[in-house]
Amino acid sequence: MLKEYTKLGKIESSLIEIDEVSDIFFGEVVKVQTRENNYLGQVVKIIGNTAVIQVFGDTTGVSGKNSKVSFSAKPFELPLSEEILGRKFNGVGEPIDGLGQIYSLNSYNINGRPINPVSRVYPRNFIQTGISSIDCLTTLIRGQKLPIFSGAGMPHNKLAAQIVRQAKIIGDENQDFSIVFAAIGVKHDEALYFENEFRNSGVLGNVVMYINYADDPIMERVIVPKCALTAAEFLAFEKGKHVLVIMTDITSYGEALREISSMREEVPSRKGYPGYMYSDLASIYERAGMIEDSEGSLTLIPILTMPNDDITHPIPDLTGYITEGQITLSRELMQQDIYPNINILPSLSRLMKDGIGEGFTRDDHQSIANQLFASYSKVQEVRDLAQIIGADDLSESDKKYLEFGNEFENKFIKQDLYDNRSIFDTLNLAWDLIRILPKEDLDRIDPELKNKYLK
Q1: Orientation angle between helical segments 277-285 and 314-322, nearest 10 degrees
Q2: In 273-395, which ranges are continuous DSSP H helix?
Q3: Are strands 140-141 and 126-128 parallel, antiparallel or unpaired?
């Protein structure tokens, strides 16, 4: 029998305290009913026989006398079926596209199911995005979690939409990705941009959207990534689909955690964020991957905007520890009108070495990538020297590096928004560019590969 409580205690912001409760559990879903509105909520703290409930919405008008709280004896669950493809939901999984409810015999806990580490499959399959700086230098692997570190005003949304439009698994081109898109505290025009991009590229019918707008309740922001990942796990591990999850913006998620933690009067950690933010972010990121005996996979690309472009800020700092690399965007390249403005030197993919080379991409991939990294790093040194002594006084070798740097940025990194390069076109372009450099400086490439490709 479900319990109802009509005597509410302290009400502060979106938190409600109820005394003298029993037989409830952490994370339990509750319904708060007033004369005018009904709200969903969740048990977020239990102290003795006192429960603290976080309400998903504005508690204006809720009082201890005109309201009642019903405990459901269930965790937060979503009804899921393949009919979710092509649908749009709010931050707590309720349809907002006017197409009705999702009816299913099964409901799934949004906190996910624990995955035995032994049953995880090591990611190896190369995903071609058609973007040279990613495919060659920060390669995305199926089942990987690879965040995009961006900043305010940068074109990270365009980059994410281009990846969705062009991503395919080499060797399995007939297998399309199902897309799960989670928008966390975004403006209406940002969400509309993604929806239009999905529609124009013809993939909208294969996309599930979970959207929390900037004017939606703060509490929804910590629920929406869990709803999106639950849907992704269902499609990947029960329906055998390859699922690509895009989340924007993880910074909004972190800010929501900080605000909710402050409301709960928890002891703050660095920059006011809760001390458990590392484990909380890990509970999201670690749901990506592949599992034995399942044909599907879950690849995660979270986007986060670094406050003041500070990569040491707690959110990107902790994200970098948990995930398998990062794609970092450069404000300097953006100001030079270079898109995508990927800064390759601080970018990396820790799984790249196991998903490229012969049998995956091409035998020269690792060598040419190493050479590009080393040469572009030298370009930065030469540019610093040129600012001191002037470009005219540089050695002939250093002038070659300046030429290489300009060509690399304007021909290799810079691409049109709809330019979809194959990995072979990308590698061939890389060989064309390193021909600018003195041959004696090409020390990261195997001599056999030089003879094969440097003709």
Answers
A1: 50
A2: 277-285, 314-322, 331-335, 365-389
A3: antiparallel
Contact 147, 326 (CB under 8 A): yes
**In residues, how long is the chain?**
455
CATH topology of domain 78-354: Rossmann fold (3.40.50)
Pairing of strands 107-109, 29-33: unpaired
Distance spanning both ends of the chain, measured CA to CA: 79
Q: What tens digit of pLDDT does each residue of 54-98 get?
A: 888 766 667 767 778 888 888 888 999 999 999 999 988 889 988
pTM, to two decimals:
0.91
148 contacts 349 by C-beta, under 8 angstroms? no
List, in sequence order, every residue forming a beta bridge with 47; answer none if it has no partner: 50
As annotated, the residues of the chain forming the CATH 2.40.10.170 domain(s) are 3-75
Model pLDDT, residue 28: 85
State the pairing for strand pair 297-305/148-150: parallel
| Distance (Å, whole) CA 262 – CA 29 | 22
Going through 206-319 in order, the beta strands assigned E by DSSP cover 207-213, 242-248, 297-305
Element (H, E) at 156: helix 156-166
- Mind listing the pLDDT tens digit for each residue in 195-204? 999 898 888 8
3-state secondary structure of 302: strand
Phi then psi dihedrals of residue 226, to 5 deg: -70, -40
Q: What is the DSSP letter of 289?
A: B
Cα gap 390→50, rounded to integer Å: 71
> Which amino acid does the sequence have at 4?
E
Q: Are 117 and 327 in contact (CB under 8 A)?
A: no
Q: Which CATH class is domain 3-75?
A: mainly beta
Give the chain's radius of gyration (CA, Å): 25
Cis peptide before 446 (omega within 30 of 0): no
The CATH 3.40.50.12240 domain(s) of the chain lie at: 78-354
42: closest CA among 58, 31, 53?
53
Say how far apart CA 91 and CA 210 lie, in whole Å. Answer: 6
Whether the CB-CB separation of 4 and 69 falls below 8 Å is answered with yes
